Amino acid sequence: MSEPKVARNYFGGKWVRSSDEKLLEVENPSTGEVIGRVVLSSAADVDRAVEAARGAFGPWSRTPLPGRVSSLYALRGLLLDHQEKISRTLCAEMGKSLPDARAEMNRTVQNVEAACGMPILQHGDKMIGSAAGIDGEVIRLPLGVFAAITPFNFPAMAPFWFLPYALATGNTFVLKPSEQVPLTMALIADLLDQTGLPPGVFNLVNGDKAAAEALVDHPGVRGVSFVGKSSTCRAVASRCVALNKRCQAMGSAKNHLVVMPDFSKLDQLIRNMSTSCFGCAGQRCMASSAIVAIGDETYQAVTERFVEDSKRFLVANPFDPSVADEPMLMGPVISADAKRFIVDMIARGVAEGATLALDGRDAVIPGGENGHFLGPTVFTDVKPGMEIHRTELFGPVVVILKAASLDGAISIINEHQYANACSIYTQSGHYARKFKLEAECGIIGVNVGIPAPVPFLPFGGMNDSMVGDVKMQGKAAVSFFAADKVIVERFGFGEW
């Protein structure tokens, strides 16, 4: 058996060794097998990455915009050429199914395509005659080095919520991916190296919390993008404010699906909801984990049908050739610690008095005895405020609540601390409009179980699901990665 791959750092256009070469094992969560090792970078390594980015910023920021975008066009082609290889690496280290991994790669490419529109997105504004004889202008300029600290659940896509937009706007970039899933970005960094990007424009620093903190604190970093738990978002944002850095921080979620009695296509609705809830084993910020049914009859029908449909999911190793391409395949959660937390929360839900209508704790996967598998789990008779309703479990656990009216459902959503996304199923334009206007979430879906916006639209939540007010993707990304410089000018001095 060959030695597992080591995910190293990439600074200044070269793969480099860490200063002290501490390594952490990377495991396949389906089998527990060690499939690689990752460097745990020191503060000195972070400094080398940032200094490489700072050195590259001047020439890169002066590169004409079409030249910057051409590198992204080249990257798009390379990502498509290597899409299956990256998807399989992603699947091996994160555990999601191959169909989910391929879908993630599609969205990764779409973010590159959106950033290729920077010649339009970064347009300035001009006002002729803003005052007598005076014109006003707004130009949008890059700031310097930006950093991103990204989570385990989307090893390819999450970095690309930030990376292509930062580069296209003329900044240089340092990425710290999750130490649990470093191998995917190692492959993509190899592709970035092939695009002809000048050394130091893109830099990869691997590591754990120590590397992340060093990156946030580094005086050479002008802004930080972070995705993770809300508590960590607040800590990162507080540190950035203290150091006068820009910050965008996307946090925890508890996304609700509201089912109105007028929605008649129940079979389609149930399948749409179950794939929303259990795709990627519930480990995504847009996963729905709470269903609110309106009225007794709707609640009864939804509960019975949803539990039965949840049993149809195949819990298996995503590389099992007999099921690898099944659209309803569900892999493991990321780690033993994650599984332990979810199991403890299931027990907590039982203790709180909720009904455990479907228990996935005893999932047995042949050959996956050392994996971290859980089956779909459904609680009914859940009351707002129960801990299983308040807490983000980040796993395949769904709670079903009942409300007497749409107003009641909106109250359940608006009283929750997390406000990333929510959706309504209805055939009524009145209900849909009321929900769009009154539900206090950053992303609203109408008859869509996963209302994840395409990359041309902004992405981000509200309340404790997002710290700060600058979202990611599209024009929102330009607002974060480029500074507005306002120019007031007068010509024709003799006409004063």
Task: Name the descriptors.
single chain; about 500 residues; alpha/beta; Aldehyde Dehydrogenase, Chain A, domain 1; Aldehyde Dehydrogenase, Chain A, domain 2; 2 domains; seven-stranded mixed beta sheet; six-stranded mixed beta sheet; 16 helices; 25 strands; globular
Task: Give a verbal description of the structure.
This protein is of the alpha/beta class. It is built from 16 helices and 25 strands. The strands form 7 sheets. The chain has a 7-stranded mixed sheet, sandwiched between helices. Strand 6 and strand 7 form a beta hairpin. The longest helix has 20 residues, at 43-62. The model has no long low-confidence stretch (mean pLDDT 95).
Produce the secondary structure layout.
Elements: E1 5-7, E2 9-11, E3 14-16, E4 23-27, E5 34-39, H1 43-62, H2 65-81, H3 83-94, H4 98-115, H5 118-121, E6 125-131, E7 134-142, E8 145-149, H6 163-168, E9 172-176, H7 183-194, E10 202-204, H8 209-217, E11 221-227, H9 230-242, E12 246-250, E13 255-259, H10 266-278, E14 288-294, H11 296-310, E15 314-315, E16 329-330, H12 336-352, E17 355-358, E18 377-380, H13 387-390, E19 397-403, H14 406-414, E20 418-419, E21 421-425, H15 429-438, E22 443-446, E23 462-463, E24 466-467, H16 474-481, E25 482-490
Parallel strand pairs: 1-5, 8-9, 8-11, 9-10, 11-12, 13-14, 13-21, 14-19, 15-16, 18-19, 21-22
Antiparallel strand pairs: 2-3, 4-5, 6-7, 7-25, 12-24, 17-18, 20-23
